[in-house]
Amino acid sequence: VKWKGRELFELVCRTLGLRETWFFGLQYEAKETIAWLKMDKKVLDQEIPKEEPIILHFLAKLYPENVEEELVQDITQHLFFLQLDLYWYRDTYGLWNSTCRHEQ
């Protein structure tokens, strides 16, 4: 696949029916470092581990100050609250690992 990061990200957003895309990104872990997929580079030209399956996490990159005013779509609100719920759950039960971190 010779897709650029933006093409893959837009495919994910279209699949979810998400229009408020600017809050989100695709994240990966490489060499114990968390990084965001660069939109202007080809996916496989980035430092993503090449083992299959390639794992990318669709996560919020930006957090609005006022959720009710800034998040218009129901799906956007739902995705934010799912992520916050996951963070709370993992923090409460000590389940933090390489797939879910507070780091941005």
Layout of strands and helices, then pairs:
Elements: H1 5-16, E1 24-30, E2 33-36, E3 57-60, H2 67-70, H3 74-92
Antiparallel strand pairs: 1-2, 1-3
The helix count comes to 3
* Residue share in β-strands: 5-15%
In the predicted model, the low-confidence regions spanning at least 5 consecutive residues are: 98-104
**How would you state the average pLDDT, rounded?**
82
Say how many strands there are.
3
What does this structure look like?
This protein is α+β, with helices and mostly antiparallel strands. Helix content is 34%, strand content 14%. It has 3 helices and 3 strands. A 3-stranded antiparallel sheet has the order 2-1-3. The two termini are 27 Å apart.
Overview features:
104 residues; alpha+beta; 3-stranded antiparallel beta sheet; 3 helices; 14% strand; globular; disordered C terminus
Quick structural overview:
The protein has helices at 5-16, 67-70, 74-92, and strands at 24-30, 33-36, 57-60. It is an alpha+beta fold and 104 residues long.
